[in-house]
From TrEMBL:
GO terms for biological process: L-arabinose metabolic process; polysaccharide catabolic process. Homohexamer; trimer of dimers. InterPro entries: Alpha-L-AF_C (IPR010720), ASD1_cat (IPR055235), GH (IPR017853), Glyco_hydro_b (IPR013780). It comes from Wenyingzhuangia marina. This is non-reducing end alpha-L-arabinofuranosidase. Keywords: Carbohydrate metabolism, Glycosidase, Hydrolase, Signal.
Amino acid sequence: QEKTTKITINADEKSPVISKHIYGHFAEHLGRCIYDGFYVGDSSSIANTDGIRNDIVEALKELQIPNLRWPGGCFADTYHWKDGIGPKEDRPTIVNTWWGGVTEDNSFGTHDFLNMCELLGTEPYLSGNVGSGTVQELADWVQYTNFGGISPMSKLREENGRKEPWKVKFWGIGNEAWGCGGNMTADYYANEYRKYATFISDWENTGGLLRIASGASSDDYNWTETLMKNIPKSLLGGVALHHYSVIDWKKKGDAVTFTDAQYFRTMEEALKMEELVTKHAAIMDKYDPKKKVDLIVDEWGGWYEVEKGTNPGFLYQQNTMRDALLAGATLNIFNNHADRVRMANLAQAVNVLQAVILTDKAKMILTPTYHIMNMYKVHQDAKLLPLAFESPKYTFEGKSLPAVSVSASKDKKGSIHVSLVNIDPTKDNEVEIDITKLGIKNVSGTILTSKNLRDYNSFDEPNKIEPQIFKKFKVKKGLLKVTIPAFSVIVLEGK
Ligand code: AHR
């Protein structure tokens, strides 16, 4: 019998609120995310609103997605927004050079995206083109979307059918500037950023714009250091970070038939997020001790080989319990670092990488990752409850990782939520949470697990993995004892 892990939850008054924006998503013009994903066109037989699939809108509304990043990714630095406005039949085409070399007809553009965000009840996060665009082009985009007064761009917007500005708050200044965004050095990009940020004006002086610098790839700490050192804080709202859980970029492994060793590696990469956000945040602390600048992990998730028979440039992959565990553990890390991590975007929302939704013509499935996002939404804008514990180990071939990950929060109504993940695929783990100081009378729980680690929801069996009521816990003398089954994610609610 393994010993029970003791967890102490602190109802610390000073703890930060977990920004709802940690639960953000990402939609790129990549593969079947936009076209044949979100957007089917208004002549489609699939139920839609101005071409946007109604079933996807409903599913994402249920998740209360707080923000949606668009149009890329790498695509963003090739995108010229003026190609995507005005009558659809007049819009020019471009070639999507990063993703499959397909012809982009620009039928989904600024109005389509921003109106879709209104349908979803979510905040748009626009990624500006720095790599192949101009300062003027990006400044015009801000004026087009945000200015309510008389100006050339507001006039153009009105001519295109939209009177009121959308008031977009989140603006990315380029994407992966160290790579597909222009292969820039950190110093060069910091200067470019300063220039772009200067001309992206908050047209109505509401102080409402958040300018986000293209961030580091995983452990490129020099990138963060250079940006934090060289960009005046008055121009900097957030610094991004991208980290994918990839086994090996040359041999990413199958999304479903992964080996035990590949599973371990994926989890190792996922849990590395703890070290990454800790170290990037420490660098930010040096230059911004008051924590004004947000750390924004605007791309994260599992990345495997594409599904056999699909376009390699479309990044379509299935989503198993492995992905659910990856998501649960990563979101716990973000929650626990809520003092600095204030926004994040899972890559990507529909049909690409670690998607929450997969579609096949008229069919749509919710992946295990979707269910995690749904279970965890209780943490959005709730107050973090810091906790302390030492995790039991998940050992594989002489190497080990912490098996259990936990985060806890108190929402505005006073309910407490604790999310627990056990990544160990072979062993249940028992934890004992001291809830004496939390004033909890009733506890209930939800669990996501399955018979096999490699299980997934398919178009033939769409509900194979679904959250279930969880009851394997006992409360005695202020101690909440929980058995977390192997490869499972649990969210407990205490009232
Ligand atoms: O999400 C897929 C791609 O991964 C994005 O376009 C890019 O920013 C990253 O390299």
